[in-house]
Amino acid sequence: MVNLLDFDVEGLTAFLAARGEKPFRAKQVSRWMHRFGQSDFDGMTDIARNLRETLKTLAVIAPPAIIADTRAGDGTRKFLFDVGGGNAVEAVFIPEDDRGTLCISTQAGCALDCSFCSTGKQGFNRNLTVAEIVGQLWQVRHAVGAYRENGSQGERLITNVVLMGMGEPLSNLDNTVSALRVLLDDHAYGLSRRRVTVSTSGLVPALDRLRDECPVALAVSLHAPNDSLRDRLVPINRKYPLSQLLAACRRYLEKAPRDFVTFEYVMLDGVNDSEAQANELIALTREVPCKFNLIPFNPFPGSSYRRSSPIRIRRFAEILMAAGVVTTTRKTRGDDIDAACGQLAGQVLDRTERTARRTFALRLEPREVCR
Ligand code: SAH
Ligand code: SF4
User: Fold this and answer.
1) Same domain, yes or no, for 6 and 92?
2) pLDDT at 331
3) How confident is residue 371, by pLDDT bands cut at 50, 70 and 90?
4) Are residues 50 and 177 in the same domain?
5) Whose CA is nearest to atom 6 of ligand 2?
């Protein structure tokens, strides 16, 4: 059985063409799946009965199952998905007055091991499939009622998608690119490139490929104004240092749908938040059209960092803005439900592993740093 959520529209066209179907059929099936949230072939009423019967024998439409759906007081809603083998990934829906943003995951765990990141501390399990990436949006659209609305009203519920959940999208580039194509396709979700953002810690060759294959809005996790500090915080920097990363950002902008890169900068008390470091950052990024998004550090069990104080964050932002750099500070939303990168999944893993520990005491792996 194939999972049709694994195909972009081109893949679906090829799949149906191999069964003698014309390309418009792929568009029809895609609209049923993605625009109307249909998972039952019998419900695809304008598709010929014999094709529906064939599809039932060959294919399924199977997103990952939601295993937790938690609402914070501020409206933020966090979903946890079962991706099998004891792995869970998360998506966070952030409703605002004028838009709704969904943050989705691209990997179960992450191999890049940034020192302040809960996902990184869980280690790498595996890449998500296209169906698991796109399926998060599919499921959340159902959960928030976007499919019930069946039209323009529903479209407005989730207006933006950011690949900023668990994992490094550019380490799972092929599946990420196919998933992005589904998000953008008019016969699927029809999102504009400007409203879909990939966040990366800076895999330079993959960033060039993303630019060539499917450029969308770009966020880069900078977090430090020089290589020696970034080497410690974001270890992939040892392979692709800042000079290479910033040059890749400039190349990306040649084809990007927006004319700036968003630099994410996690605010770690006493580590990267001094006035001198703000000035160093201005000098470093002078040649790259950019905006800054300061992210107050989200502590998690076992983390050794502290969040910078609001006064320090404000001062840091003021220095950037005085130099003409547009700077926003991320609201710490969903704090009461641990809506930070990797945290809820971390807890589930925790529980699973505590059970595992009791049951299979000899099979413990010394991997879990964040417990
Ligand atoms: N792997 C990608 C995307 C997922 S992480 C990347 O690193 O960009 C999304 C963002 O959350 C990144 O900017 C990351 O650095 C940040 N982040 C990770 N752990 C965090 C924490 N504990 N507190 C605040 N931000 C964190
Ligand atoms: Fe991976 Fe991003 Fe976390 Fe770094 S910050 S470990 S790249 S998910």
Assistant:
1) no
2) 83
3) very low
4) no
5) 120
